Amino acid sequence: MGVYRRNGSWYIDYYNGNRRVREKVGLSKGEAKRALTVRQAQIAQGRFNLHSSSSSPVFEDFAESYKEYAEANKRGFKNEVYRIRQLVRIFGKRRLCDLKAWDAETLKANLIKSKRPATVNRLLGNAKHMLSMAVKWDHLSTNPFAGVKLLSVPETAERILQEDEESRLLWACDRVRASYLRPIVVLALNTGMRKGEILSLQWHQVDLRTRSIHVQNGKNKKSDRRIPMNDAVFTQIFRLREDQRGMLVFPSPRKHNSRFVDLKKAFKSAVRLSGIPKIRFHDLRHSFATRLVQRGVDLITVQHLLGHAKITMTARYAHSLAGEKMAAVRRLDKGDPADIAVANRPPGAVPDEGGQGDKAFCCNSLGL
Predict the structure, then answer these.
(1) How many Å separate Cα 98 from the centre of its chain?
(2) What is the pLDDT of residues 95-145, one digit of tens each?
(3) Is there a single domain that holds both residue 205 and residue 73?
(4) Which domain CATH number covers 286?
């Protein structure tokens, strides 16, 4: 029993009962020693039940079982299928019991060369959840990816669409080859719905009589909500209803009764044609929330409209303007109104000490 190095990597060597086990740990000798100590403690406490390679399923076979579970239990299943396919291409022929934390670290190192950190994290998060379910279903003793950290994701500055930019964007939407792009953008700007919620919207969720949309396909339980339709949304939806085809409000023009996979290419073309600075589709949701807050709508109402699980998620959309902040703190002013008036005078305005009453004169930077 002990640790040893082979081909640049450190391994641990120990016995579990009468069976000799060798595990690859990583590039650090210290990490290997700690891993060996953990295994010895688990064996001594009877908490380490090593699954034999013959009883451990191959990753691609396990992925099929996991997909059935995800389809029945996870709201984002359609997006997850693509990530599961990627993981199968990476780990497909490996047995679950042969996967180690170092495999997840290798996955991160390889993917970050061509993908953004947030994309890598979604893929790694999927892999971690799959293996946690493998533990729950008794295919593994422990999840080897459990302690693997996600990548740090730099914060992306939120872009708020200005009123004139909105007009130019909608003008451009009518001029690209995407028949549903304009009504989809109108919905995003006036309901705050996520892109996935809009693209999977079905007619049974739309009530023209009460002018409301029942969102039932959100990313969490709080996402189930009813959103009133303003005139802009109602007009677009009413026109689409007259030309209804199938269950979906926005059916794919290529596959009957199938939803759009994405509209990234068409949206980028419209943004480029409009001549406005770069904006992401999700920024339309930011714009919706920010406009509501700036018009005095309380955060609880905004939270319900957005379908946020926590109010802290909504608070980040409250981009108060400098003038609004000043007006807020001035509400605390007390005392003589004349004193407050003097305090609120702009810089450079000073009282006339020559007996001219309350007149003031302004000085330039030279005092003239």
Answers:
(1) 32
(2) 998 899 999 999 999 999 999 999 999 999 999 999 999 988 888 888 999
(3) no
(4) 1.10.443.10
